[in-house]
Amino acid sequence: MAVKIAFFDAKSYDRESFDRENGKFGFDIRYYKDRLTARTAQLAMGCDVACVFVNDECDARAIEQLAGHGVRLLALRCAGFNNVDMEAARGRMPVVRVPAYSPHAVAEYAVTLMLSLNRKVYRSVCRTREGNFKLKGLMGFDMYGKTAGLVGLGRIARELAKILRGFGMNVLAYDPMPDEAFAREHGVTLASLEELYAKSDIISLHCPLTDSTRHMVCRESIAMMKPGVMIINTGRGKLIRTEDLIAGLRSGQVGSAGLDVYEEEQEYFYEDRSDKMIDDDKLALLLMMPNVIVTSHQGFFTREAMRNIAATTLANIADWQAARPLENEVK
After folding, report:
1. Is 236 known to be catalytic?
2. pLDDT confidence of 80, banded at 50, 70, 90?
3. Which residue among 97, 155, 206, 297 is the active-site one?
4. What is the Cα–Cα distance from 283 to 50, expressed in whole angstroms?
5. pLDDT(266) > 90
6. Is 265 a catalytic residue?
7. What is the distance of C-alpha 281 from the center of its chain?
8. Which of 169, 271, 297, 153 is nearest to 230 (CA)?
9. From edge to edge, which strands make up the β-sheet containing 147-151?
10. Axis-axis angle for helices 281-288, 242-251 (nearest 10)
């Protein structure tokens, strides 16, 4: 009998990529538009696996409900697992993830945000569409010779470092367990977090969300940064305390910010809210700021990454079905 998968928060592009890859596996995938919560967990009744994404609420109550409905595996189709109560899952069901779907996709998107902010691309396009071809207010700076600070030196950050070095930038990196061989080979200078904050013209966040990194960008750390610093976040929204970022933008200590993630994004991202008022005052304010770009957690969203996400997720489930070692299990 085919493994039954309850697929939460399903979008049309998810169906396309997973149906294409599922031809190799033959699983019974049941797609649901609803995000996983304790209330919607009942949709998984009779299923063996729950497949979830970054904004599904895999808290203790949801996991308890899933287990009660017969779910025996939680398959994350993403790298991060900060939305999963791992203590609640322990002993009930293994948790597997997709540790690397396309580091190139996210690294390239981080550069897209940097260039768009620096050269005021969005503002320029809006102006020219209205027939305004003036250059006032659109001046940027040469990336060449500037210093970029990467917080984290994992797969994505390593790809980003190579791109930025290609621009002729100086690259600093902080990581508690740095890849020293990579740093030497690619001309990346390893630095303390304080040194990185003080010397970087652009800071890009590429670390997991943990108790130690939650709100690492806050009033105190912003005060350590160079005046006018550009902050890029393609990692996790809660790495930044939003009210402190807004204060930094207002004072000019932060010159610009490119955010592909947001602290409370689960209520907005991946949904069409264009016919509703945004009742999150901090998000609404960020969207109004001319030196801020907010996008909808799309850094991963390439054809190659979606194919890799589907292939790895389904392979994880196949390994579990066959009682093989779970290479991508979250421990």
Report:
1. yes
2. confident
3. 297
4. 31
5. no
6. yes
7. 22
8. 169
9. 188-190, 170-174, 147-151, 202-205, 229-233, 254-259, 292-294
10. 30
Q: What are phi and psi of 117, to 5 degrees?
A: -70, -50
Q: Is the pTM of this model over 0.90?
A: yes
Tokens coding 238: 């809660």
pLDDT of 22 > 80? The answer is yes
Residue tagged active-site, from 97, 155, 236, 241? 236
Single out the catalytic residue among 265, 267, 271, 307: 265
Band of pLDDT at residue 267, cut at 50, 70 and 90: confident
Token code pair at residue 318: 């196949």
**Angle separating helix axes 121-129 and 103-118, nearest 10 degrees:** 60
The Cα 140–Cα 18 span in angstroms is: 42
Classified as helix, coil or strand, 6 is strand
User: From residue 89, how far is each of 42, 185, 202, 203, 232 by CA, in Å?
Assistant: 17, 41, 38, 35, 33
If one counts every other C-beta atom within 10 angstroms of the C-beta of residue 156, the result is: 27
DSSP 56-81: S-B-HHHHHHHHHTT--EEEESSS--
241: annotated active-site residue: no
Q: Which of 15, 5, 3, 59 is nearest to 309 (CA)?
A: 15
Q: Six-digit token pair at 53?
A: 């994404």
CB of 186 closer than 8 Å to CB of 161: yes
User: Does residue 14 register a pLDDT over 90?
Assistant: yes
Place of tokens 């009210």: 243
Q: Residue 330: what pLDDT?
A: 95
| Token pair for 127 | 């102006």
Residue 1's pLDDT is: 77
* Cα distance between residue 193 and residue 251, in whole Å: 23
* Contact call for residues 153 and 183 (beta carbons, < 8 A): yes
Task: Say if residues 57 and 37 touch (Cβ distance below 8 Å).
Answer: yes
The CA-based angle 169-175-180, given to 5 degrees, is 75
Residue 218 has pLDDT above 80, yes or no: yes
Residue with tokens 């979250």: 330
Comparing CA positions, the residue from 262, 305, 307, 293 lying closest to residue 280 is 262
Average pLDDT of the chain, as a whole number: 96
